[in-house]
Amino acid sequence: MRVRPLFVIISTLSLFLAVVLIYPSPPVVPSKSSDSTSAKSDIWSVQRIVEWRPCKWWLQSHLTPLPAKSNGYIRVDCYGGLNQMRRDFCDGVGIARLLNATLVLPKFEVAAYWNESSGFSDVFDADYLITQMNGFVNVVKELPPEISSKEPHRVDCSKRKGQFDYIESVLPFLLKYHYVSITPAVSQRRDRYPKYAKAALCQACYRALKLTGSLEKKANKLLEAIPKPFLSLHLRFEPDMVAYSQCQYSGLSPTSMKALEAARGDDRKPWTGEAARIWRNRGKCPLTPNETAFILKALSIPTNTNIYLAAGDGLMEIEGLTSIYSNVVTKSALLSGEDFETMHGNTKAALDYCVSINSDSYMATYFGNMDKMVAAMRAFKGLYKTLFLSRRAFAEFTSRGLEGKPLMEALWKAHEDDFIKGRGSALSDCFCEFKL
Fold it and tell me: Which GO terms describe its molecular function (predicted)?
């Protein structure tokens, strides 16, 4: 009689063990709640899969010797803002090497609009440039006496596109006149350059252009004054920028509307109806400061972040940013009145550029000349906390009716993909993609 209970106990234990072996309990997984939160504390915590670094063929290649005799002199005429002129000058260096020409220091052609009177040597160290370009291309400050009295033969390449070729279109004039001035083509075909011409362009853009001693000193003073760590934010919402975009905005203040109407004139009227919607969804409309603040929050950038505002004069609706991100500083506030008031557009832009390439992180609401130059130089220095806020993603998501948390989640995903893949991190002419 006592054997039966023992048999039942043994049978029950056997059945229990069989169930455990057939249906094992799930493995214990560490909680991801705290790790996940810290891993995604902001967009910079996302693991990238790509980095852009200077190509080895540029940094380590043996230079093709310069020919013994130059074909003549080339001056690059640069127009627009500082970084547009910097881009044109870098292109001009590559063109000069391509055509075996001696490069004359460029001429900065600036309209009254830019409130500018400074020349190349007022911004960049000419002696440093000449030294750094040794072996890449010959650069001179002045022309020889037999040429200096002449005006260069003007060759405007700026509107040329497609199969435009400098050897075919510029070299004959260089050989005939021995002194030409050019404005580089907007659409370059650098893929057709020999590597020695590409290397000259890369060397000029990322190693040879250095601010003058006085500007560098002012830039260092500005860097020291900015609370650390800090994000440099290149925000574009000036009246001329918005007018040029031909975009419609609702809810702007009367002051902003008045400035915008003055900038629009008669030939920059905004799109209306379906055309306006399509235009905005293509990412053509500058982000407002308020929209910028919303995206920063979506990317988990803390609202107490120190932000240096890299921007021109006359930003509209800036309260839309500063009402949310209160630790925003500007160069006009950090520099003494005398230091700031004596500066022109180019020298102010030079300070923004210098601060941005040395910031802990950099974000831009546009993808213009400054942004491309800053991103590339940051990649050159090994600084990869760089991101371009997507106007297109913001427009597409809001046009679908997304708002609040769903909009924030969608914006996070869009920018996460951009950061992971290194979108826009550097210009491909001088940089190569490295998988991580």
Answer: glycosyltransferase activity
